[in-house]
Specification:
By secondary structure, the protein is mainly α. The chain has 16 helices and no strands.
């Protein structure tokens, strides 16, 4: 395999990748509530909605690791092309579906497309970023997801109407529109992947050899912490979106106000990712990861207190800012900890953890809420985030050098040391390469 060097000057590729991700994520964020409304119009009950939602998250679990393996030894850009096609096709055909089993199938196709796109896009960021730039570039990359999550549900709400039995046609229209939005991503997919550049044989040897076993990747210092942090943060976002309306109903807060509060949370997440680099310089990666997770855990517990709306808004702003740290830094942690020839596989394992969290966390929250009331899901989130912060602090405090993965376990330098120490040396140093046409 020919190794590649990370790209130094010029980041137009990153801006185009953020735009592409914004459209793809916006399409998915618009389609997912529209799928639920469309299913309700076709006669689905709560159990059927749960099954359709689970198919979106569970189907991609079967192919995440094989896709990561394939990306480790090949190009990333084809996954983006396939992912956008599957997202667009899944959205459009969901809008045309006339039965619940067909809806579930196309929901799974949409989820598979989203997985393909994210694995390919994250792998491009990892390959084209110098080690010292990965935190910043992953932070900017995830702004695309935040923009899509901010705009998509609002757009779905504007299109879908329940008045006069119009939910069936308007939800179908929303799905068709989301398919078109996903297709717009193709406009900025060009030249996202750099050409392969020759590197010295000793650097190429580090990426050659048989695939690293999944067990060895999961035992690599830093990988479990990155996966668990990503799972905890994503679970917090999902459960917050699902259960904040329940709190609003209990406290007689209008749905429009709840929507505004959720938008404030998303806006704070975007703001956090814009200032990621200075925060890392000021606090250090380990302290930032551990502290943001711990503070987010405390804030999740505080949401159940009977506070006025302005105080709830302040807590959600702070919570959104804290949650903005977890996703990009968990990507960097996993990439820098994983063996060189298994980075895409490690990112795929991180996404597998995300999908498991999207299935298990809402189910667990629902069971707890049924037994202990609305406060229970937020207590669960607090425990998850505090545990994630403790794991990040423990992993960052341990020291050790990178060793060969052939023995089954792979150690790597902690996240704070994995940047500047390798920048500009061998395969890790930045060097501009011609872009792939």
């Amino acid at each position: 395999m020919t190794a590649t060097r990370p790209e130094g000057p010029g980041r137009s590729w990153l801006l185009r990748l953020v735009l592409t991700f914004s459209f793809a994520q916006g399409a998915v964020s618009m389609a997912r509530p529209a799928v639920s409304y469309r299913a309700l119009a076709l006669g689905a009950d709560e159990r059927a909605i749960g099954v359709i939602t689970a198919v979106y998250a569970l189907l991609p679990l079967l192919v995440a690791v094989p896709l990561g393996r394939r990306t480790d030894h090949g190009r990333c850009a084809p996954l983006l092309v396939v992912g956008v096609a599957l997202i667009s096709g899944g959205c459009t055909l969901s809008g045309l579906a006339a039965s619940l089993p067909v809806m579930a199938a196309w929901s799974g196709v949409m989820g598979l497309g989203h997985l393909c796109f994210v694995i390919g896009a994250q792998s491009i960021v990892a390959r084209r970023s110098a080690p010292e730039d990965r935190d910043r570039n992953f932070g900017h990359f995830t702004i695309g997801a935040s923009l899509g999550q901010l705009i998509g549900p609002v757009a779905a709400g504007l299109v879908i109407s329940e008045h006069d039995g119009r939910m069936a046609p308007t939800s179908a229209t929303a799905l068709l529109v989301s398919g078109a939005v996903a297709a717009v991503s193709y406009a900025s997919l060009w030249r996202l992947e750099q050409r392969t550049c020759a590197v010295p044989p000793d650097a190429a040897d580090r990426t050659a050899g048989p695939p690293v076993p999944v067990r060895a990747i999961l035992r690599t210092r830093g990988v479990p912490a990155g996966i668990f942090m990503s799972l905890a943060v994503l679970s917090a976002t999902d459960i917050l979106t699902a259960y904040l309306p329940v709190i609003g109903e209990d406290r007689a807060i209008a749905p429009t106000t709840i929507g505004l509060l959720l938008s404030l949370r998303a806006a704070a997440t975007i703001a956090c990712r814009l200032v990621m680099t200075p925060m890392i310089r000021w606090l250090g990666r380990t302290a930032l990861m551990a502290g943001s997770c711990a503070l987010a855990g405390v804030l999740c517990g505080g949401l159940v207190l009977p506070v006025p709306v302005w105080a709830l808004a302040a807590m959600l702003l702070a919570l959104g800012f804290c949650l903005g740290v977890g996703q990009p830094l968990s990507m960097t942690t996993v990439v820098q900890a994983a063996p060189d020839r298994a980075r895409s596989t490690a990112l795929a394992l991180r996404l597998t953890g995300n999908r498991l969290g999207q299935v298990a966390a809402p189910a667990g929250a629902g069971l707890l809420a049924g037994v202990a009331g609305t406060a229970a899901p937020f207590a669960l989130l607090g425990v998850l985030l505090l545990a994630s912060g403790a794991m990040a602090a423990r992993t960052g405090s341990r020291r050790g050098g990178r060793t060969s993965p052939s023995a089954g376990g792979v150690s790597s330098p902690p996240a704070d040391e994995a940047g500047a120490g390798r920048a500009g040396k061998g395969a890790g140093g930045p060097q501009a390469c011609p872009e792939r046409p």
